[in-house]
Amino acid sequence: MVRVDQAGEYGAARIYAGQMAVMGSRHSYSGEIRRMAEQERQHLDRFNQMMTQRGVRPTALQPLWSVAGFALGAATALMGPRAAMACTAAIEDVIEKHYAQQLEELGDKDPELSAVVKQFRDEELEHHDAAIAHGAEETPGYALLSAAIKTGCRIAIRVSEKI
């Protein structure tokens, strides 16, 4: 769980890096993206710490997630600020469900990990809601874009669990 969650937070940090590289501070959404990116960085730092404490190795695909995450962020930002928000909404929808499933699986077995996952799930829900409030669903082709991003996110989760 720690490996796949660290990989997801790493990917999220790279997505926001790609979005910020394209958008800079030119758009009204830049501040919101920066705020969400900082939370993702905090999530990543916490999972990096837990990996060290627990002797968990990172996914071997981290270099791929670096490139893919940055590319996804940059591509959606190039499509416009609402598309960048559509990317966030799609990913956070999948991650919220992923974290909820982990919490169910963990039960009372690992209180430390459960507390971290619950806190991060709540913050990912905030990101989702902020993205929707910033017009994610108004993106032309939203349903298709969202479905494609969600599919990619689910695949990344499954692959990171194994490799």
Description:
It is a single chain. By secondary structure, the protein is mainly alpha-helical. The protein contains 6 helices and no strands. The protein has helices spanning 2-23, 30-54, 62-79, 81-106, 111-133, 142-162. Helix 2 (30-54) packs antiparallel against helix 5 and helix 4 (81-106) packs antiparallel against helix 5. The two termini are 12 Å apart. The mean pLDDT is 90.
Overall pLDDT confidence: 90
Annotation, overall tally of beta strands: 0
Name the shape in a single word: globular
H/I helix tally: 6
Rg calc: 15 Å
Helicity level: over 70%
Secondary-structure element sequence? HHHHHH
* Computed structural class: mainly alpha
What is the first-to-last residue Cα distance? 12 Å
Largest sheet: none
Unreliable sequence segments: none
Beta-strand share of residues: under 5%
